Amino acid sequence: MNAPRPIDPGPRPAGVALTAVPDEPARVPPRVVDNIIELVGNTPLVRMRRLERECPGVELWAKCEFANPGGSVKDRAALRIVTDALARGDLRPGVRLIDSTSGNTGIAYSMVGAALGVPITLVMPANVSEPRKQVTRAFGTDLVFSDPMEGSDGAIVVAREIVDRDPDRWYYPNQYANDSNWLAHYHGTGPEIWAQTDGRITHFVTGIGTSGTVVGTSRFLRDHAPHVRRVALQPDDAMHGLEGLKHIPSSLVPPIYDESVLHETIWMPTEEGWDTAERLAREEALFVGHSSGANVAGALRIGRQLAARGETGVVVTVLCDRGDRYFVPLKWEKQYAF
Ligand SMILES: Cc1ncc(COP(=O)(O)O)c(C=O)c1O
Q1: What's the half-sphere exposure (Cβ side, CA atoms, 13 Å) at 239?
Q2: Of residues 72, 102, 110, 291, which has the active-site annotation?
């Protein structure tokens, strides 16, 4: 049989060498799984070649956590939190998981709960966007609303009150204090990045929400590749617009947060994170949320500093979720009349 004629991929974007064309056979066979949760983790690592032009000699790489089935980095933590609790017997029949989250963790718990038959209740401030409420409810999750003026810390307080009233009915994982959270990254994100860079990574940088990603990945690197520089990133102000990230000095400090595994913290202005998110969509075709923009802005800062000193480096950061999560969706539920 004649070999199929290669499809002309068309003109290549200036300065970008394509390593694969559309009709190449897949180098890795597509995954076949029994349950959606098997698709959590093993996310791709993508090089940001256009941004690299600002830091000659330095490679910039992004771990595509938006490729998880629930759409964010939080799938890893939620999956490990639930499976560890099931293994310990904390989540037994008749017990519901309850946690305070309006963001990606809520969606991740909801997805994992639906996949494993674990009932989920989420506490979130009443002013959380309608799409956030709808997406979690779509998985069958129950919602409880807390005072919008008290923000996410207020939701934590309400969740604790509900559990205290009837402790036998609930399993309260508290992602901010749960070791399964950072362990998901110690055993997943860290080793994956190490393998995907062939051990060439020199810098890791990512933002702090619960701190699970930065603490777990940094602990792995500290234990297995201590020469890699481990950098956290925080919003530079208590009032910020980098959803998913925490300004630790003005927040409840997550008990799993461990500054001792970090070499330094970058303080990121909201505007730099948002601007970089826009650049990522336009220049790298990576349409991601603002915490991802902030992470890449942090990676760029490191890259520029290295380049200014004439040094090389392999800087890795995390794309936490996709940009479309921040848009109001079309109506999805069948209850709507068109
Ligand atoms: C959009 C977004 N970015 C970043 C993070 C930070 O991740 P972590 O909780 O592992 O620190 C989160 C976590 O909630 C998030 O939702």
Answers
A1: 0
A2: 291
Q: Whose CA is nearest to atom 4 of ligand 1?
A: 244
235 and 268 in contact (C-beta within 8 Å)?
Answer: yes
Rounded to whole angstroms, how far apart are CA atoms 184 and 167? 26
Q: Ligand 1 pocket: which of 66, 73, 230 to mutate (most atoms <8 Å of CB)?
A: 73
Residue 145: which residues within 8 A CB-CB, separation 6 or more? 123, 124, 125, 126
Owner of token pair 């996310």: 43
What is the distance between the alpha carbons of residues 310 and 295, in angstroms, rounded to a whole number?
23
Supply the pTM of this predicted model.
Answer: 0.90
Per DSSP bridges, beta strands 313-319 and 203-207 are parallel
246 is catalytic: no
Q: Which of 223, 294, 206, 306 lies closest to 261 in space, CA to CA? A: 223
Question: What is the rounded CA–CA span in Å between residue 326 and residue 253?
Answer: 26
The dihedral formed by the CA atoms of 106, 321, 90 and 151, expressed in degrees to the nearest 10: -40
Structure tokens at 300: 């760029």
Confidence of residue 336 (pLDDT cuts 50, 70, 90): low
Structure tokens at 204: 């890791």
List the one residue out of 287, 328, 256 whose CA is nearest residue 64: 287
Nearest of 319, 336, 154 to residue 244 by alpha carbon: 319
CA distances from 300 to 184, 187, 219, 225, 317 (A): 26, 26, 23, 22, 10
Query: pLDDT, tens digit, for every residue of 224-259?
Result: 999 999 999 999 999 999 988 999 999 889 999 999
Nearest alpha carbon to residue 41 among 112, 102, 95, 89: 112
Radius of gyration from C-alpha coordinates of the chain = 21
For 20, 133, 275, 331, the CA distances from 336, given in Å and listed in that order, are 43, 15, 36, 7
Of all residues in the chain, the percent with pLDDT exceeding 90 is 78
- CB of residue 102 inside a 6 A radius of ligand 1: no
Task: Choose among 284, 64, 13, 224: nearest CA to 276.
Answer: 284
